[in-house]
Amino acid sequence: MFSLGFYYFFFNKRTSLISRGSTFRIVADATARFDYGLTYPLTYKFQIPLSSSGIQVWKKDSPGGSYIQLTEKTSPDIFNGIEAVRFDYTLGYAYVSILFPQTSDSFYVKFIRNNGDGLTGVTFLNFTQYYDNRVSAAVFTMDDCGVVQLSDFETASDTFASKGVWVTAGFFHMGDFTAETWENIQSKIDNGYIEPASHSMSHLPMSDDFNVGESRQTILDNLTMPPLNKKGSKEYLFAWITPLSKYSEVMQAKVGEYKYLTNVAGFGTYVYEGIFPVWDEISGLYEHWDRYAFAESVSLATMNAQFDSDHAAGKIYHLGLHPQNVSWRADGDFPLHLDYVKNRTDVWYVGMGHLMVYRYATEHIKIEIINTNFDEI
Ligand SMILES: [Zn+2]
Fold first, then answer.
1. Measured between alpha carbons, how far is residue 243 from residues 95, 247, 287, 289, 329 in Å?
2. How far is the CA of 264 from the centre of ligand 1 (A)?
3. Domain 136-345 is in which class?
């Protein structure tokens, strides 16, 4: 349960008791916001009166700011990682997906009718497990994105973007990158659907800290992160992909120390569960987890069947791949698998780090509710 915070009643003598609707103030934990940005839109599930219609949701970033209406999406729309509201008028729910402001840890949301009247009887229920209350999530993580594999990375990036499916790209051997390498990678990131990740500097755990910090800093120094990894001028790198499927407690502790949120370890090392890993209190990030397989090692039929199984069970489908080992021909197994997976309205297409920052945020946000029918906030 979330605490109610406080109720705020405002009597405006000039305008008398004009109903402005239900307003909510959302406040993030300041430390969590600083450490991890909380840069992915979170989906707040509100109860709205049954049989309502024509509702609008507006937000503003500060008490003195202006309200902006959120874009309404409907269930046939394909969208991921954006601000939007989707209503289920039949069951009386509003799924409100909102980003925190760039420069503040709090914001306001209000519900009004199309005619401008306030809407009463709105209640915050909970965060949805997956963005926009999707049934399941689809996560793809690419290992071994480097100079030698650059053209494969580029082809992979174009393929994912053309299909509207997010992928997390793990860069490695970054000591070999030239300015041109970084520029080529940047252009693919700017094209969308790519979440950068570290796959270590050397691909070998050569040093005590496994290059965890150095690789993070190298990426942040040379790339402009996508908007979902940025808060104001501060940039975040959430995802670490363990080289050679190696794992140790020392590595996990380093990954946590450098404020990554998630550590994935190849495949076959651990049992694939397709569920959120739990928080690791000792190392300060989520527990390491595993992928179902590498795409190049399984058949199209096998991949599709695993996706169907995870989708039906409401799980997180998580597949790894090495871009240089996959056929990118349109009739190759992996592009055909993406065709099978893509464009589903009940699936959340999301990078691995974005998935986990969503999870983290929903566990670390205080909801202070300012709920008034006479709101001038
Ligand atoms: Zn690798």
1. 38, 9, 16, 14, 27
2. 11
3. alpha beta
